[in-house]
Write a structure and sequence with these properties.
Elements (H helix, E strand, L loop, with lengths): L6 E6 L14 E2 L2 E2 H10 L6 E5 L3 H10 L18 H16 L5 E4 L9 H13 L4 E7 L10 E4 L2 E4 L17 E11 H7 L7 E5 L10 H10 L2
Parallel strand pairs: 1-4, 1-5, 6-10
Antiparallel strand pairs: 2-3, 5-9, 6-9, 7-8
């Protein structure tokens, strides 16, 4: 609890995955990534509840090993690959509030597919929310300027073109502002944003910039890379 608000961690981990089968049970450093996410959350002493949102029994059992709870199962209608994070978080929040008969003022989403996170990273994101009086905070990493949106191209109908026509004006890297990408380490959202705005990013959203290299796992190659970096 912080400032009188109960803190809920939600670990989204469905059983289906098209890229890597049962991805959330795959191991990094010898530990299933869903268990790793639960272990990290368990190290933060002011977090009041850690739950896994899953439709898969083995994932639920594995998350429990890491210190999470699994008091409900994700229904089929929000277990597909076109389901938004918002839908999963709102369902988890309302289910656990009904079970616990209490209100959680802040929801923290930890995606298992970013296993290089530390408890320090998650703590920094939560603290940023309160110190900046933000309604949501996402952890982000700075994007290498070679991948800047104004340097991107599209190839459509056999024609190569700029993704953004402003890209024509870019001559040197110095013309490019810094841009950032979400790294999946932590999303911190106040309850009212989920309930009232039906979103995971509020109008007054802050960023917690995480240094170092972080990989969000989508492929077998990502697993190999993360295992080589994990310590």
């Amino acid at each position: 609890m912080i400032n009188g608000l109960n803190i809920l961690v939600v670990i989204p981990a469905r059983g289906g995955s098209k890229g890597v089968k049962l991805k959330n049970l795959r191991k990094v450093g010898g530990i299933p990534i869903v268990e790793l996410a639960a272990r990290i959350a368990s190290k933060i002493n002011y977090i009041d509840r850690i739950v896994v949102s899953t439709d898969h029994e083995e994932i639920a059992k594995t998350a429990i090993k890491g210190g999470a709870d699994a008091p409900f199962r994700r229904p089929k209608n929000i277990s597909g690959d076109r389901v938004s994070d918002f839908q999963v978080l709102l369902h988890s929040l309302l289910e656990i509030e009904k079970i616990d008969n209490k209100t959680y003022g802040v929801v923290v989403m930890l995606q298992p597919t970013s296993p290089l996170r530390s408890s320090k990273d998650v703590n920094a994101a939560i603290q940023t929310l309160f110190k900046g009086n933000f309604d949501s905070v996402w952890t982000v990493s700075e994007t290498d300027k070679k991948y800047h949106p104004l340097k991107q191209l599209i190839f459509k109908n056999n024609i190569l073109d700029y993704y953004d026509q402003k890209g024509k004006e870019i001559i040197a890297r110095q013309q490019l502002d810094k841009v950032y990408h979400r790294n999946g380490i932590a999303y911190v959202i106040r309850r009212e944003i989920l309930i009232n705005d039906q979103a995971i990013m509020g109008k007054n959203s802050g960023a917690c910039i995480i240094e170092g290299e972080h990989v969000s796992i989508d492929t077998e190659e990502d697993f190999e890379l993360v295992n080589s970096m994990f310590h």
